């Protein structure tokens, strides 16, 4: 499987420091311990999270031990290409995982396959996440867009038919990068821009599947992205939540948006998606929103073999999102 490293030798925000020095790891934790007894950012009843041991352990077991991420802050983000010969359209796919892990199969490979079957090329993004902090993951996503546009001729892609598709935290990643970071410059001291960094990071379409779009009622999720010291007080949390709420940054003329969610989603309320749709409508941004009565959270490519027992999903109706999404893509990218 090809891995296209999106940065050169100079990767911003990296260092030889050990992640393990700042993580509280308990190898004895079971998955039930992690999600029920030490949920960390998944405890939506709290505004301030003291116990991150479950999240730390999850990242250690799911990312570091298998070698997907390094023990040090020296990870090298990459894109996995799934190219359809002759296709002018492509999507950069951003898997979710709470900014802790990345669902590279259910929300990556499986999604790439159905896009390819519809004649659409795509690139699945592996980005840096916890214990990396803001703005690292968003700069990776921004760089991925620029990388694909810079190399679009090599893949036969039309530079104005590049879209982005994100799931859950990956939906937040995509929306934050497109709507908040836009074409801003990297602020890491000592980083030297190359020609890719000078390429536009705009997209022509954006798909957001059960995305986290607002932190007003789920400030616990901020702890996967920001340092605890930046979230100590209610005032600090409210300020960052407002800064990171997507609807506060949308502008007229932004790319068309596809929204999809299930009403029985226990992690991200469907009302969050509905409220966002109201706001983008005010800005006259073309959009579609699709709500399913059942589907839960994390259905991704709707492959039963990938089902997460902690978040069971009913695919009977929600699987239709794939066909609906392809129809929408073909209507906005021509």
Please give a structural write-up:
This protein has 334 residues and is an alpha/beta fold. It has an 8-stranded mixed sheet, with helices on both faces. Helix 1 (31-37) runs antiparallel to helix 2 (53-64) and helix 4 (136-150) crosses helix 6. Helix 3 (105-117) links the parallel strand 3 (90-94) and strand 4. The chain has 10 helices and 8 strands.
Termini Cα gap: 30 Å
Which structural class matches the secondary elements? alpha/beta
Order of helices and strands: EHHEEHEHHEHEHEHEHH
Poorly predicted spans: none
Features:
334 residues; alpha/beta; 12% strand
Short description:
The protein has 334 residues and is of the alpha/beta class. Helices cover 31% and strands 12% of the residues.
Topology of helices and strands:
Layout: E1 4-5, H1 31-37, H2 53-64, E2 78-82, E3 90-94, H3 105-117, E4 121-126, H4 136-150, H5 152-155, E5 162-167, H6 169-181, E6 205-209, H7 234-243, E7 257-262, H8 270-282, E8 287-292, H9 315-318, H10 321-332
Parallel strand pairs: 3-4, 3-5, 5-6, 6-7, 7-8
Antiparallel strand pairs: 1-2, 2-4
Helix pairs in contact: 1-2, 4-6
């Amino acid at each position: 499987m090809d891995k296209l490293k999106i940065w050169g030798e100079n990767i911003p925000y990296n260092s030889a420091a050990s992640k393990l020095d700042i993580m509280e790891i308990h190898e004895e934790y079971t998955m039930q311990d992690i999600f029920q007894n030490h949920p960390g950012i998944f405890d939506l009843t709290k505004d301030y999270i003291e116990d991150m041991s479950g999240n730390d352990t999850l990242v250690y077991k799911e990312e570091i031990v298998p070698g997907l991420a390094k023990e040090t802050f020296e990870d090298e983000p990459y894109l996995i290409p799934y190219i359809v010969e002759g296709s002018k359209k492509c999507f950069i796919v951003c898997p979710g995982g709470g900014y802790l892990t990345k669902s590279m199969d259910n929300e990556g490979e499986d999604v790439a396959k159905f896009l390819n079957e519809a004649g659409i090329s795509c690139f699945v993004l592996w980005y840096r996440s916890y214990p990396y902090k803001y703005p690292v993951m968003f700069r990776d996503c921004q760089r991925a867009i620029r990388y694909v546009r810079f190399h679009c001729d090599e893949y036969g892609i039309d530079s104005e038919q590049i879209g982005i598709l994100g799931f859950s935290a990956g939906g937040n990643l995509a929306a934050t990068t497109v709507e908040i970071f836009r074409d801003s410059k990297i602020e890491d001291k000592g980083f030297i821009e190359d020609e890719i960094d000078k390429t536009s990071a705009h997209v022509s379409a954006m798909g957001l599947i059960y995305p986290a779009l607002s932190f007003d009622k789920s400030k616990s999720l901020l702890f996967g992205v920001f340092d605890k010291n930046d979230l100590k007080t209610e005032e600090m949390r409210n300020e960052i939540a407002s800064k990171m709420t997507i609807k506060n940054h949308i502008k007229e003329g932004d790319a068309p948006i596809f929204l999809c969610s299930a009403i029985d989603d226990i992690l991200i309320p469907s009302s969050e998606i509905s409220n966002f749709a109201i706001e983008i409508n005010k800005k006259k941004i073309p959009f579609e929103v699709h709500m399913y009565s059942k589907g839960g959270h994390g259905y991704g490519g709707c492959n039963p073999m990938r089902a997460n027992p902690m978040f069971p999903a009913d695919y009977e109706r929600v699987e239709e999102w794939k066909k609906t999404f392809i129809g929408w893509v073909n209507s906005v990218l021509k």
